[in-house]
Specification:
elongated
């Protein structure tokens, strides 16, 4: 006996999609993937290689300031999040990809 709302039609049993639960599931999947990517040393090494992106180039001649380190950490965090969303979006429809993106805004 299922506790989920369902409708039977002939041999098929259909369930109503709970979009809030799908959102929660997507968020958990994305969070788990982000966590896994952060623990993947080859991925992180490749992601942070060069230590510069555009105007946020860090000088290797002087020690970076605390602001530079925080900015760099925030940039890496964003890159990991984007990579996770790109990986997941390959398996999602456009609608659910947009839902996933909205969860991190």
């Amino acid at each position: 006996m299922s506790t989920y709302p369902s409708v039977e039609s002939g041999d098929a049993k259909m369930y109503r999609l709970n979009e809030e639960k799908v959102r929660e599931w997507l968020r958990k999947k994305a969070d788990n993937l982000i966590s896994s990517l952060k623990q993947n040393k080859p991925f992180m090494d490749n992601l942070t290689k060069g230590r510069s992106t555009g105007k946020f180039r860090l000088s290797m001649k002087t020690a970076p300031s605390q602001d530079d380190e925080e900015r760099q950490a925030a940039m890496v965090e964003e890159k990991v999040r984007v990579a996770a969303m790109q990986l997941l979006s390959g398996y999602l429809s456009n609608k659910w990809t947009q839902v996933l993106a909205s969860l991190y805004q």
